[in-house]
Amino acid sequence: MGSLATTPPFQVLDDTRPDDKSLPAFMVSTTRGFLPRMDPVVSLPAEFDALESILQRMPVKTASGEPGLLALGKLGDEVDGSFPDLTAAMDRYEDDLPVMNALYRDYSFLASAYLLEPCHERFVRGEGYGLGRQRLPRNISQPIARCAEICGFKPFMEYAGSYALFNYRLVDPAAGLEYSNLRLIRAFEHGLDPESSEAGFVLVHIDMVKNSGPLVAGTMQCLEVASRASSGLGSVEERTALNQGLRRILDAMTSINGVMETMWGKSRPTEYTSFRTFIFGITSQSMFPDGVVYEGLNDDQPLSFRGESGANDSMVPLMDNLLQVPMPSTPLTEILKDFRQYRPSNHKAFLQHVRDRSMEVELRAFTLGLKQDGQEGSGDEEKRELLRQSRGLWLQILNQVRDFRWRHWCFAREYILKRTAHPTATGGSPIVTWLPNQLEAVLADMADINDVARRDDARGLGRTCDDVMEAAMRQRETLRKEVDKYCAERGVARG
């Protein structure tokens, strides 16, 4: 194992070099994980004062507490009137990638607000969303395309690069990333108030991702051990090191899920749909049946992009790739693959690297003891006990992935399905069937691994894993009943 590995090494940072402006704002590190390698740029250069001004005046409730342009229905008029095209000013900052990322964030807020302002107005009146604006004017389309190209994003709002992970500031820099020290830079509705549901929705995501450094470190440790394992079970030292890496991953995922659970209290289910309007995308949305024309781009033929979605976060996809979770061959899985395009370029490359490397060094087979060579000597019993630990840790990590996806489903049920009939999520996936597609895959994989362990050892994987499996199988039945119920109510095929 490992000696034939050909995948080139991926540069995971230990030192994030926060003052280096030549590096992309988003790189993968063992310290900050998938967060930007420095705290986001808050203030734009003076050449972009007009952009700063319109964004400060844009939210439904501004920082001063007064109604903003979106509350008054005046954003579109201002964009179509006096707002300048600042594309040329970007050339002065193309080598300052954190500033370019801030410009991408800010233009994506303006683009989404402009396109979806009419839908928000109808929502407030209790009507359906209707149509958004079908053209993005040149004074937004040109600059967002330019900064997106430089930063490696699509020219539309994304989860990491704009809405969430590059959209916080610290009240006190010395206090760091403590939740109470976080504030939003940009918002659509009431998010400049840190107690609002919009702020809570975004800030909880940041609070989760700050735990991703150990997730990355544990991933790299496991891949490194598997790459040099000398036999089917590996040496005692190798398997001990592997289990240490698995425990780092398990602890990190447990922390991430613990923070995720705080969403219920920090972003109220009854208030989510009021700011959700502004984070819809173009793809598969009734508001944009023919896409959106970006003036001056693509020969003025419509373009289509998926909207902001927490599904674009990189933590659970990292686990899918590392653990080689088998996904069903369905149209819903194809949507999952499409989502991979809506991440920072460095994150995309890292996830692909982990997927390729995990398969190359046969991490799954090594960890689960699926390729034992039968030639271990006197240390067999110790190694087999360590193998049992490996299997237990692997199953518990999968259980944390299950827990994450189950909670995501519960959010979709309580925040969306019970409050709106709109059939698609913000990213354009079917709201009833898409999340269960991935959750069912994880549950099936857990059952398979548990069966393998029981065939090899009558003791199974111990009380903790027995309890995990009992709860998971009960949950699978609950999930199927819930999905069947919502499919029947909404006339949706089970998929």
From TrEMBL:
TM annotation in the entry: none
Superkingdom to which the source organism belongs: Eukaryota
InterPro entries the UniProt entry points to: Indolamine_dOase, Trp/Indoleamine_2_3_dOase-like
Protein family per UniProt: Belongs to the indoleamine 2,3-dioxygenase family.
Protein name: Indoleamine 2,3-dioxygenase domain-containing protein
SUPFAM superfamilies in alphabetical order: Indolic compounds 2,3-dioxygenase-like
GO biological process: L-tryptophan catabolic process to kynurenine
Lineage of origin: Eukaryota, Fungi, Dikarya, Ascomycota, Pezizomycotina
An MF annotation (GO) of this entry: oxidoreductase activity, acting on single donors with incorporation of molecular oxygen, incorporation of two atoms of oxygen
Keywords of the record: Iron, Metal-binding
Cited Gene3D superfamilies: 1.20.58.480
Pfam family, one: IDO
